[in-house]
Design goal:
Number of helices: 13
Distance between the termini: 33 Å
Order of helices and strands: EHEHEHEEHEEHHEHHEEHHHHH
Largest sheet: 7 strands, mixed
Structural class: alpha/beta
Shape: globular
Strand order of the largest sheet: 3-2-1-4-8-6-9
Low-confidence stretches: none
Mean pLDDT: 92
Strand content: 5-15%
Helix content: 40-55%
Length: 332
């Protein structure tokens, strides 16, 4: 019986699944099974999965499209492991991942864990720039697994796991945006321990272009208000900073136009700081330039989504039935 059950929801991403399964086949520790749950894809990855049946304990399932959370729960219900591990389909797993993870859990067992994400050398320049944006303290406050954090660590679904005991008491993911934060919050509220395992990192491809990245971060901003309605104490200062950034940029630009040109200097200083930080981390002038753009897209899209949802759901009162809305998505 495998100790780990890997659950991967997938929708129309056969090329990414190929890279992910190849990386799982190259693991130095094989004490895991893989459940690949195809969530109603029109471009399925069954042919890709079949190529790995001989080198992985792989279980492929195709189901109607209901959402990634329901797909994860579908996999959990069929899994045999004592520990459920969740990856996104756009991840690549370093060869020592499960060897490191099992060693860490044997030294200090926890009921729920999460690990960081990183950029692989073979990622595109845009992917590396987006990775900088999503992990830099200058843009996120380190809340995605960085070394310095302004928020207590919260496991994310691109690289997280929890025990069968958690599943039996807390249940699975709910079909909503930021479902991983919701899940992690319920795990913590149920009294289970959570830990960041820094060495159990994955390579996360994220979005491959800036337009898709903008849409993704816009949804993140809106979902933060949903989480605030579900868990009133969950909203922290760091979550509000992108909205402050949007309003601050607008104020500085207006001041520079209608008052004094040098009012824009704080924004210029921030651009330079971003560029230098990205250059030091990526060692590429081109990626550093793209990283400045992706950082502004991230903060701007997140901030705008946050402000829009705050006005609509809180100020105008349209978020009062949030639990009923989530239950409807779950089909309950």
């Amino acid at each position: 019986m495998p100790y780990f059950s890997v659950i991967i929801p997938v929708y129309n991403r056969p090329a990414e699944v190929e890279d992910l399964l190849r990386s799982l086949a190259e693991q130095t520790s094989k004490d895991f099974e893989v459940f690949l749950v195809e969530d109603g894809s029109t471009v399925p990855c069954d042919a890709v999965a079949s190529r790995y049946n001989d080198c992985l304990d792989l279980h492929y399932h195709y189901k109607d499209n209901e959402g990634r959370s329901i797909a994860r729960n579908y996999g959990i219900e069929r899994a045999n492991g004592e520990y459920f591990i969740f990856f996104d389909s756009d991840c690549v797993i370093p060869p020592q991942y499960f060897e490191i993870l099992k060693g860490e859990l044997e030294k200090e067992y926890v009921d729920c864990f999460g690990g960081p994400d990183a950029a692989s050398d073979d990622f595109s320049d845009v992917q590396k720039a987006i990775n900088f944006s999503m992990t830099s303290f200058l843009t996120t406050g380190g809340i995605r697994g960085g070394k310095v954090q302004l928020e207590k660590f919260v496991p994310r679904s691109f690289n997280m796991g929890y025990s069968r005991k958690v599943w039996e008491k807390v249940g699975g993911f709910r079909e909503m945006f930021s479902e991983d934060i919701d899940m992690s919050t319920r795990v913590r509220q149920a009294g289970f321990t959570t830990r960041l395992i820094r060495d159990a990192y994955v390579y996360h491809k994220r979005r491959v272009d800036l337009k898709k990245f903008a849409r993704q971060t816009y949804v993140f901003g809106m979902s933060r208000i949903t989480l605030k309605l579900l868990y009133p104490d969950s909203l922290k200062l760091v979550h509000c900073l992108p909205a402050v950034f949007v309003l601050g940029c607008l104020a500085l630009i207006l001041l520079a136009i209608f008052w004094r040109w040098w009012a824009i200097l704080p924004l210029v200083f921030y651009v330079v700081l971003l560029w230098v930080s990205a250059l030091i981390k990526t060692k590429s002038i081109k990626i550093a330039c793209i990283a400045v753009v992706s950082s502004f897209i991230q903060l701007g899209a997140y901030g705008f989504g946050f402000i829009k949802a705050f006005v609509w759901k809180i100020l105008l009162g349209h978020g009062r039935d949030i639990n009923e809305e989530i239950a409807m998505r779950q089909g309950k």
